[in-house]
């Protein structure tokens, strides 16, 4: 409404007063994404360092593995919600236009102390991504592998593929699913599985969908598709649109068909 009535000052004031608290909240989530990036790299370092294998690490440091899983769960949940709210980018664009206009008129608004032009630019790039938190974690994982050249790549990919396998087994085994206290536990497990698949796909040269992949992609997609469609639509979309190698020629046709 405020886009169509730029000369209605009362409406513009109401719009501005509505948008400012949202921008502050968006800044908090952006700042949180930077903390998650740091935390993820720190956890990867602890879960992949010699002399233990990734499986031994996951058994010995279950609390760290749980924290890793919690980060992935939050990330997938955040991005699912963000994809359902396209107004975020419209509101943020309105904020930036208003700030620019006021700067031209030599007006300084209090909120600029919170979200200045440089911060607004960084936030704009972040929220322009369909799945901003996943993008942050994918980049963080890729950087971790690139920066730790002495660490065998397999240490990282094996850690991720092992977590994916554990989640898949838990989801497809009635003995385990019957122990889940609520649907939230089921969703937690599915989000973690999808999260580690996406990270694996970004750091492994051949990706997660290749026949040589250590992740049983057919099995993982099947356990998702066995769930109510409303619960998994966002997760299947994440596999479709935020992975790197799905459309490679080496991806088996049956895998691609399952995700259509």
From TrEMBL:
One of its GO terms (molecular function) is small GTPase binding. Residues 10-256 form the CYRIA/CYRIB Rac1 binding domain. Pfam families: CYRIA-B_Rac1-bd (PF07159). Keywords: Lipoprotein, Membrane. GO terms for biological process: regulation of actin filament polymerization. PANTHER family: GH09096P. This is Protein FAM49A. It comes from Sinocyclocheilus rhinocerous. The lineage of its organism: Eukaryota, Metazoa, Chordata, Craniata, Vertebrata. The gene is LOC107732415.
């Amino acid at each position: 409404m405020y886009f169509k009535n730029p000369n209605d000052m009362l409406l513009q004031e109401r719009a501005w007063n509505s948008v400012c608290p949202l921008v502050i909240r968006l800044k908090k989530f952006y700042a949180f994404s930077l903390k998650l990036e740091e935390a993820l790299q720190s956890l990867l370092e602890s879960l992949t360092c010699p002399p233990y294998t990734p499986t031994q690490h996951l058994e010995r440091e279950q609390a760290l593995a749980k924290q890793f899983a919690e980060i992935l769960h939050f990330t997938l949940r955040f991005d699912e919600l963000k994809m359902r709210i396209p107004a975020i980018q419209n509101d943020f664009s309105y904020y930036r236009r208003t700030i620019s206009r006021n700067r031209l008129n030599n007006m300084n608004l209090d909120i600029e102390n919170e979200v200045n032009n440089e911060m607004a630019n960084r936030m704009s790039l972040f929220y322009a991504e369909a799945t901003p938190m996943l993008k942050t974690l994918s980049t963080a994982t890729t950087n971790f592998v690139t920066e730790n050249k002495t660490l065998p790549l397999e240490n990282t990919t094996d850690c991720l593929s092992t977590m994916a396998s554990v989640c898949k087994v838990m989801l497809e085994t009635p003995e385990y699913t019957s122990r889940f206290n609520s649907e939230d536990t089921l969703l937690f497990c599915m989000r973690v599985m999808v999260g580690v698949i996406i990270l694996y796909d970004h750091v492994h040269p051949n990706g997660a969908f290749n026949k040589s992949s250590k992740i049983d992609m057919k099995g993982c997609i099947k356990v998702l598709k066995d769930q109510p469609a409303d619960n998994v639509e966002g997760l299947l979309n994440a596999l479709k649109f935020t992975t790197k190698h799905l459309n490679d020629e080496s991806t088996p046709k049956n895998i691609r068909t399952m995700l259509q």
